[in-house]
Amino acid sequence: MQGQSVPHDLAATLEALGVGPGEPLGLAVSGGPDSLALLMLAKHIRPVRVATVDHRLRPEARAEAEMVADFCARLGVPHDILAVQVQGSVQAGAREARYSALGDWCARHALRWLATAHHADDQAETLLMRLSRGSGVSGLAGVRRSRALRDGVELIRPLLDWRKAELEEVVRAAGITPALDPSNFDPAYDRTAARSLLGAAPWLDAARLAQSAANLADAEQALEWAAELAFVERWDGAGLDPRELPTELLRRLVLRILAAFGETPRGPDLMRLIEALRAGRTATLAAIKATPGERWTFAPAPPRRSR
Fold first, then answer.
1. 20 to 30 A from 302, CA-CA: which of 46, 122, 190, 252?
2. What pLDDT, on a 0 to 100 scale, did the predictor assign at position 89?
3. pLDDT value at position 92?
4. pTM value?
5. Does the annotation list 30 as a binding residue?
């Protein structure tokens, strides 16, 4: 195992994430080694309820979900199988369907917390993928330790300090045979390429890459704090004072203003708008007209004239 192994205290991690000592946890368990390890670790320190999502994309998926159900029955842990319909692209559609179903499941069972088994190797792969796409600080911060999943439900990832090999050892030591998703080995997916790169380049230490993502998450938090202060100082509800603002803060402020109009532009489109305003040119993005000056103003664009 690359990197230096360190002891992990899952109970302390959960408390740091805000999970009270007696609060129940919802666990997303696919049947793979990572999520089975999460189940085995968590059941000793919190009341847990497990859900397995059947995306109905592979013939084996139902049998894998039933395997998890049988394992939970032996542990005395309540378990539910959630069948979903995936729409659109396979990975993005599966992710959207999965989290929507899990959020609803948590709400039905009055579960405030949903834990997934994302670990340090996942974080390292995510960082490499986003580097290849030219992501900014927010994207390079990787997967967050927690985020709101829906009203009253928080998604948490308490295993981000664990290595995949450590989780596999938990399952191996218990004599459990996990399910293996063939999509994890499909070269058509960027994550598979990132995983192969990590395995082929010993100098790319997954734990250190994951730490870099954590450092970038701290930087993202600091930038958001600074952007909030700058927004209060620079935006008066009618115009934005852009003078001497660093590009990253300016980008975040303009994005907030556009979001108030219901627009969430792509990064390149947003930067084109900002560069036009800096050059003294009026610009339109979607349905918003932006006008330069000492204060930049934003307003709904007039409707286009029909020919």
1. 252
2. 81
3. 87
4. 0.85
5. yes
